[in-house]
Specification:
elongated; Immunoglobulin-like; seven-stranded mixed sheet; alpha+beta
């Protein structure tokens, strides 16, 4: 008899179940493949092997190659030309025999015969600015490609090589077996581009008022391509958008520049006393002890004075870096230079900024502090930052990253004033680019293939870091703001993209150069997906543990998307194949709504459902054992039960069942007075948890999250039975807009009318 209470709670499902069975029985019989949204990703994933384990960790036979560089670089400031000589020592740690090596020549994207412009569709614009018309039709293309003067063995013997656009194949004198190391040298030069005119990732900015240039230099040397167990040689051409796949190695780089320049870059400055003045050395020692405010190594006054003269002498800066995947540097006589120490774990890291006077007063106030705060947040979310410094360099219209150094935009007006947009843009880009030290400079994913693995993951942690930055430095916020205005991360920010024209949306799991809406696809959607996974699906504790595990497993290694997906599940005990499939492999969107709410009451009289059964089976009322019947408000059964009493006077479950329980049990039994059958629908393709807020007549509220697996047997609609001692007056799905639901007009009961919203949405979506 104690099962009667359970019967009360479950009887509301009987009708739905029988109807579903009847529909199934009448449906045409035909087979189908497994289209369930919760199907495991075996078809999409490669089979685990000795190199990459099923857990998402590196396998017991995991390997990666090493490329070590020794370089001598000379910057010709007057002619904006860079020359270099490098010796590369390449170590084959793979089990494969290598007959040749592939070297990346990314500057060839700017060669006169570059094919990059030829793959873009363009039209003659009906109206153009004179400068635009001149650039497009009246000027010769800039010749900025590599000029390879020699490729030789270490004994001076020329090596055969072949250049295919941005890739150079170097023929080996004999095949390299596992464990072999081979050294060879390359001599080259190229013309440095004006990065402001053509928006290059590196180059110089010319300051017409004094004729000086500020250089941010990267992709400046022939770099080894990656050879891995996944791609073999990653020698996909560089068309300009997809960034870089690079092996780790050690660097010794000597850079010769005008004597009045200051310079910083990847690695430890090994001859600081030779290139620093005594005053600079004193300030540097002071900066090592300053953890709250930056210390100026070169002041604005000193930088302005240096900008008036052009030295004919040179100075060589020597930098040495261990276990980095790339190298970049910045140099100019116009740079102001400040530093501040930040404690990361048990070590000190120097936060550094370099900027011309055009960056002030914004940069002297906030750049280095943004660097320091970013290192703290990313280290908390991943691993302690392993390098000794992180540099932010101001460059117009720039946002680009390299190990230990990055260039960032955000320039005030000439009078020093700036808008909130410029303020937040500058802070956001610094946080983002400094964050790239972690993804992909250390967690070294293949940017050429999977842009989202560095940009998306980094944008997600950037969102967390911006929250931390605003909390650590509330004065950094513009007047009237109480939080950092996030561009990406919050679920609602991705709704316009998710609900957009399907003709111009690609799944996240698409090679970067082939995607539409690159920013939304590679940055916004994956960052938002991870934020939703953290907040709405897994919870912060489980997500953060798994995310940190992935970061630490793959620091200084080459992970794939599968390694990330598998690790997140392995470290959390969350089956997330449904999430990866929906968010990363499709362009589906979230739309969950309330289809129907039935309010039910307890009745002692058989309802229509039971009467039909009694009639069919010839059962008399007196033959029935004690049962509890549910009647829907407004139904004929309800009207019949209400002939002589009000709903509030209907007997409670406790009154009906008192005779079925002992006195002790009666004291413990719940006394629900209100019963509801709620049907949720899912017009959108993505399965997600149903986050529901119930509001009661007494003003109280209750939030319940039904796991995504509630959709596993019915991808269209599901029902929940609610027994409550308080009357529900409002039901809202996703009240905090945390799931990127594209249509909220169906999220409430009673329905909140949003004039035209849903119809406009349906017109907007092109399925």
């Amino acid at each position: 008899m104690k099962h009667l209470l359970y019967y009360v709670l479950s009887v509301v499902f009987i009708t739905t179940g029988i109807n579903a069975q009847e529909q199934e029985a009448s449906a045409p019989k035909k087979g189908h493949t497994n289209t369930n949204k919760f199907k495991q990703l075996y078809d999409e994933f490669s089979t685990p092997n000795v190199y990459r384990a099923a857990s998402g960790a590196p396998g017991h036979a995991y390997y990666q190659q090493q490329a070590d560089y020794k370089m001598d670089i000379v910057l010709d400031d007057k002619n904006a030309k860079l020359s270099g000589f490098e010796t590369i020592t390449y170590t084959n740690n793979s089990p494969d025999e290598l007959k040749y090596l592939w070297v990346q020549l990314d500057q060839n994207k700017r060669a006169k015969d570059s094919q990059s412009p030829l793959i873009e569709s363009d039209d003659v614009a009906p109206v153009m600015r004179p400068s635009q018309f001149t650039d497009n039709y009246l000027t010769e293309p800039f010749d900025g490609g590599f000029n390879i003067e020699e490729v030789k063995n270490t004994n001076g013997t020329p090596l055969q090589y072949m250049i295919n656009r941005t890739m150079m194949r170097v023929e080996l004198p004999k095949p390299m077996a596992k464990g072999d190391a081979f050294s060879f040298s390359i001599k080259w030069w190229y013309n440095i581009n004006d990065h402001v005119k053509k928006r290059g990732r590196s180059g110089y900015e010319l300051f017409p008022d004094d004729g000086n240039k500020a250089y941010v230099i990267a992709q400046f040397f022939p770099r080894m391509a990656v050879y891995s167990d996944v791609e073999g040689w990653q020698n996909s051409q560089f068309w300009g958008r997809d960034e870089f796949a690079l092996p780790f190695g050690d660097y010794e780089v000597n850079i010769t520049v005008p004597a009045d320049h200051i310079l910083d870059g990847t690695g430890v400055l090994t001859n600081r006393k030779d290139v620093f003045s005594k005053t600079m050395m004193q300030r540097y020692e002071q900066a090592k002890k300053s953890y709250n405010e930056p210390v100026l190594i070169v002041t604005q006054e000193e930088a302005e004075a240096a900008s008036k003269e052009f030295s004919n002498e040179t100075k060589t800066w020597k930098l040495k870096a261990e276990n980095v995947r790339d190298f970049g540097f910045a140099t100019s006589r116009r740079f102001i230079w400040d530093m501040m120490n930040v404690k990361v774990g048990d070590k000190d890291v120097m936060a550094v900024s370099m900027y011309p006077k055009e960056g002030n007063p914004l940069w002297e106030d906030w750049s280095t502090k943004a660097v320091a705060s970013t290192l703290k947040t990313y280290s908390r979310m991943t691993f302690d930052y392993p390098y000794h410094k992180a540099i932010s360099v101001h460059a117009k219209n720039q946002g680009m990253e390299y190990p230990m150094i990055c260039w960032n935009y955000g320039r005030p007006k000439e009078d020093g004033t700036y808008s909130a947009r410029v303020r937040y843009g500058m802070m956001g880009v610094i946080i983002h680019e400094v964050g790239h030290n972690f993804f992909p400079m250390i967690v070294n994913s293949d940017e050429r293939q999977w842009t989202w693995m560095d940009e998306g993951l980094n944008s997600f942690v950037q969102y967390v870091a911006q929250i931390d930055f605003a909390e650590a430095y509330p004065d950094a916020l513009a007047e009237g703001d109480t939080e950092f205005p996030h561009r990406r991360g919050p679920a609602k920010k991705i709704v316009p993209y998710m609900s957009g024209d399907q003709s111009y949306i690609a799944p996240i799991m698409t090679k970067g150069i082939n995607t539409y809406q690159f920013g939304n696809n590679a940055y916004g959607k994956p960052a938002t997906a991870l934020n939703i996974l953290r907040e709405a699906v897994m919870g912060r504790e489980l997500f953060d543990y798994a995310f940190k595990e992935y970061s630490q497993r793959w620091m200084f290694k080459h992970p794939t998307p599968e390694d990330f997906f598998r690790t997140m599940e392995d470290a959390s005990a969350f089956d997330l194949d449904w999430f990866w499939r929906g968010w990363f492999y499709t362009t589906d969107w979230v739309d969950i709504g309330i289809k129907d709410v039935k309010k039910l009451y307890v009745s002692a009289e058989p309802n229509a459902y039971m009467k039909d059964i009694m009639k069919e089976r010839g059962i008399k009322k007196k033959q029935l054992r004690p049962l509890v019947y549910m009647v829907e408000e407004g139904s004929e059964d309800f009207k019949s039960a209400m002939k002589n009493q009000n709903p509030a006077e209907l007997k409670t479950v406790k009154e009906y069942l008192m005779d079925n329980f002992s006195e002790e049990e009666r004291q413990k039994i719940k006394t629900p007075k209100y019963f509801y059958n709620i049907t949720f629908e899912k017009p959108g393709g993505l399965v997600m948890p149903i986050i529901v807020e119930y509001t009661y007549a007494d003003g109280s509220k209750k939030m319940i999250k039904y796991p995504a697996q509630i959709w596993r047997l019915n991808d269209n609609e599901v029902s929940k039975a609610i027994a409550s001692d308080k009357e529900i007056i409002n039901i809202t799905i996703d009240p905090n807009l945390g799931t990127a639901d594209v249509d909220t007009s169906n999220n409430s009961w009673p329905k909140k009318e949003t004039e035209g919203e849903f119809e406009n949405f349906k017109k907007k979506i092109k399925r």
